[in-house]
Amino acid sequence: MKYVNKSVLLWYSPREMYALVTAIEDYSKFMPWCDRAEVVQQHDDGVTARLHIAFAGVHHAFTTRNVNVPDREVRMTLVDGPFSKLEGFWRFTPLQKPGASDEAACKVEFCLSYAFSSRPLSMVISPVFDRIANTFMEAFVKRAEQVYGPR
Fold first, then answer.
1. Which helix (DSSP H) or strand (DSSP E) does residue 18 occupy?
2. Which neighbouring-strand residues pair with 112?
3. Which of 78, 100, 140, 146 has its CA 20 to 30 A from that of 129?
4. What secondary structure does DSSP assign to 58-109, as a single string?
């Protein structure tokens, strides 16, 4: 089992960061390894989404069921793909500037645990996916600067 745990404090609101994470169709615009991303099905509490990876000669897709708590959290569980297990979450905790009355900043946490369905598959995909998984947070921080401007 592999684990990724990242957190960062940002001068963007939980609403802004949540909007970026849940804009799945935009992933291919700012994640160089993402060939395509699509919402497969809408649910009352979230979506089922598929990500297509194309990186270092490796091409695979996986689907997750994402349960959303608006502006606060996105929980992901595996539906299908080259994994035996994949689950994780994005959490957006509001922070306030001293003297401010609104949520001007937030702590963003990204946690992911995953394992591949077979040893041969793990040997091929794991090095690529390990690199990808460790770039998620950085990609969203850069995306926030592009969309909302530097703060």
1. helix 14-22
2. 4, 88
3. 146
4. EEEEEEEEEEEETTTEEEEEEEESSEEEEEEEEEEEEE--TT-SS--EEEEE
Question: Could you identify the residue written with the tokens 């921080």?
Answer: 141
Q: What is the pLDDT of residue 146?
A: 97
Q: How far apart are CA 37 and CA 55, in angstroms?
A: 14
Residues 6+ apart with CB under 8 A from 76: 64, 65, 66, 86, 87, 88, 89, 112
CATH number at residue 51: 3.30.530.20
Report the domain count for the chain: 1
Q: Can you say whether the dihedral through the CA atoms of 28, 31, 33, 39 is positive or negative?
A: negative
**Residue 100: what pLDDT?**
63
Angle at 87 between CA 81 and CA 92, to 5 degrees: 130
Structural domain of 133: 2-148
**Which residues of the chain are under the pLDDT cut of 50?**
none
Residue 136 has a pLDDT of 92
User: Which pLDDT belongs to residue 101?
Assistant: 61
pLDDT at 126: 84
